[in-house]
Fold this sequence. Notes:
Serine Threonine Protein Phosphatase 5, Tetratricopeptide repeat
Amino acid sequence: xxxxxxxxxxxxxxxxxxxxxxxxxxxxxxxxxxxxxxxxxxxxxxxxxxxxxxxxxxxxxxxxxxxxxxxxxxxxxxxxxxxxxxxxxxxxxxxxxxxxxxxxxxxxxxxxxxxxxxxxxxxxxxxxxxxxxxxxxxxxxxxxxxxxxxxxxxxxxxxxxxxxxxxxxxxxxxxxxxxxxxxxxxxxxxxxxxxxxxxxxxxxxxxxxxxxxxxxxxxxxxxxxxxxxxxxxxxxxxxxxxxxxxxxxxxxxxxxxxxxxxxxxxxxxxxxxxxxxxxxxxxxxxxxxxxxxxxxxxxxxxxxxxxxxxxxxxxxxxxxxxxxxxxxxxxxxxxxxxxxxxxxxxxxxxxxxxxxxxxxxxxxxxxxxxxxxxxxxxxxxxxxxxxxxxxxxxxxxxxxxxxxxxxxxxxxxxxxxxxxxxxxxxxxxxxxxxxxxxxxxxxxxxxxxxxxxxxxxxxxxxxxxxxxxxxxxxxxxxxxxxxxxxxxxxxxxxxxxxxxxxxxxxxxxxxx
Length: 512
């Protein structure tokens, strides 16, 4: 039994909720297959807690296993398609297109036309241009088989609609292709590093941006355009302009609420991007309003959406709860929330993509650091550093190493500081992340790793603070303060406060 295909089938079965499993079993009973081998295989896999012993099946011959798995997978997907058809308009429209083809093949053209008209009404509500093109293709075929008095006018209308749909699809594809290119670079490097990097991204954007008149664009073209602008301006760390386009993106859904259900993934992304900007810009009151929208959507949709959207909703609810805690500087609340989530945390991490995992590891480390739990912070920072894909979010990998150095200092691990500084220096040099910010901190920590009396520490903290403060006004240096509030940490040392106390004080000053 091929291990990978077994795991894929196991994962598919485990993704089914109780209602979907009941539906699948009911269909099998109706087809008199409830006692069949493939249903025995379904029940066997459903009862297993993990996929480690799926090669121990004895009730099916080894020669039949491969075909049985394929058959069961097909049966489950067919059942899911039927189950989702009443809930998902696009699945239902594709089903209707299949019916049009079946009727057309039998020469039942009037019946095919009737279904086509109903499908047109449904596709108009979803705005899916690819499905509309498919319907137009079948309308052309039907018109060719049923020439009548209105034939010429109908053909001209169809041709005009095909050209319009193709034009819109082409523009949307250019917007989305450019967004994907930008995202691929961002996922590797993180934010803009220097002037050369900025010019490269700017050139890529403006060379790839197609000509358009925003006021003449359709809703779906605008959605793609605003999404692209958000990606671009966030990449450049121009959060104000990014926020403007994120609000424009979300506002389109408020103007056209019927689109929310059919475009739920995109609607969720719009809410998420608005909240990211509100978090970064310290717009706390606006953030709370967006948070309420997200929580209401989560409560409303948990039982009616698919597993993918359900997981995204849960992810955004918790990520933005952590962001709220970061804004307030109440890291102790974040640690309490983590403890409450701990039974499900690892499963959630495994379900997340690699990019999300790296960000989550770093955020959790920062929560523990802010609560002065440096051992726990190091555990999560080590998970970032031990990740094999150091070419994914190189900026986070770099700052995880800087924060790790500071955590070792806080724990008094002076004997390892020098070794880790050399290791970090090599890594930053290799990744092109060695800026003044990092140089000042490593020089400071190396100095402190030597023999220092307690009364000599405060002047050293003040010197580093004096060196770092001007960097907040230098474009490519100030981004370093996004990852960790080093200024608040230094001020806490100078003032004799906890880092949490000092961050709470500065948070109140930043709130808008």
